[in-house]
Design goal:
Shape: elongated
Largest sheet: 3 strands, parallel
Helix content: 10-25%
Strand content: 5-15%
Radius of gyration: 32 Å
Number of strands: 6
CATH topology of one domain: Ribosomal Protein L15, Chain: K, domain 2
Strand order of the largest sheet: 1-3-5
Distance between the termini: 53 Å
């Protein structure tokens, strides 16, 4: 096979329709545009959002508050409850975002983690998280574990 043997597959290439080239071509006279009117003229037609002069929907939307407002400073924490920790970690284990990700409790190891107090904890765990609720901290300390807060910042870390 050589370069001159290469060609597109049968039916892959199609000649463009040359409109307005006479009556016998099948697309003569008005060239498929109908007769007269805005869309028959060169450069004619209206943009997709045009609504006949009525105030377009896209012009109304900014006044609907709350639905299309994006807060760039919002910080979202991924919640993990103490009952899930008790089920997945051995006594004395160190719980970090990386180990939570490895245990399947966290989608991404880079996410901010908050430990919440649902359920019971019957084993000492050494927890490193970005936030810990009061009830969770009480349960962790009561079980003989420890809590360490990891540093995070609103703008520089991962915000959504």
């Amino acid at each position: 096979m050589k370069l001159h043997d290469l060609h597109p597959a049968k039916g892959a290439k199609k000649n463009r329709k040359r409109v307005g080239r006479g009556i016998s071509a099948g697309q003569g006279k008005t060239a498929g545009r109908g007769t007269k009117g805005q869309n028959a003229r060169a450069g004619g037609g209206v943009p997709p959002y045009f609504e006949g002069g009525q105030l377009p929907l896209v012009r109304k939307l900014p006044f609907v508050r709350g639905y299309n407002f994006f807060n760039p400073y919002k910080v979202e924490f991924e919640p993990v409850n103490v009952d899930a920790l008790a089920a997945r970690f051995e006594p004395g284990a160190e719980v970090t975002p990386d180990t939570l990700h490895g245990a399947g409790l966290l989608g991404d190891a880079e996410d901010l983690v908050v430990i919440l107090g649902r359920g019971e904890l019957d084993r000492p765990l050494h927890i490193k998280a970005h936030r810990v609720s009061e009830s969770a901290e009480k349960k962790i300390v009561a079980a003989g574990g420890s809590v360490e807060l990891l540093p995070w910042q609103r703008g520089g870390y991962r915000t959504r």
